[in-house]
Amino acid sequence: MMKPVIVMTQTSKVQSNLVNIIHKPLIQIQELSFNEHLLNHDYDWLIFSSKNAVKYFYEYLKSVKVKKVAVIGEKTAQYCEDLNINVDFMPSDFSQEGFLKEFNSMNQRILLPSSQLARPKLAHQLNINNVVIKIDLYKPIPHHQNINEVKQLVKNNELDAITFSSSSAVRYYFENGDTPEFHHYYAIGKQTATVLKNYNQNVQVADSQTSESIIAKILESRENNEI
To answer: Per-residue b/e over 167-189, b at no fewer than 16 CB within 10 Å?
Structure first.
């Protein structure tokens, strides 16, 4: 049996011997300027909600005093480890909801560098019992060439599955030009799946918020002759 051919649309590359991966990020990152005086304060926690947050904040780490670092997700934790950033907390559920459920903090000063378009729930909920300083580090913009190339692959019947790991990627895909009919979308995260459903698409959701889990879900579909 031939390996499934899948498009993975996240910015970070994924490797697997179980499927044939075509890496087509649908998002480009545009760095933003921010008030660097915010780095002059002492913080109890620095929270990274994505690898991109770590990547684009790394140059500022030496300029800010933080006691502890928290992350959402294994990949983000691993990226921190690769950069010798000690991680003090990571939830078992790699979502904003999972983080809020397990992260018990009161009267803490929290620094949250993230995407300008990040879901506001994390910052809003933490701010109820803490002081949260959110920095808009970057914003996603559509990668038009890759979006068009993925749609052409669909038209040519060359794909078995398309995966999404962010709501922004979903919106950019469906709102930039005509979208050919396709029925095998897979999502990392319930929020991403919800956005796909808002575009009247059927979607399979990975059991956990990792690339390995979404590949396992695609292979499960192949075994069930669904793709």
So the answer is: bbbbbbbbeeeeeeebebbbbbb
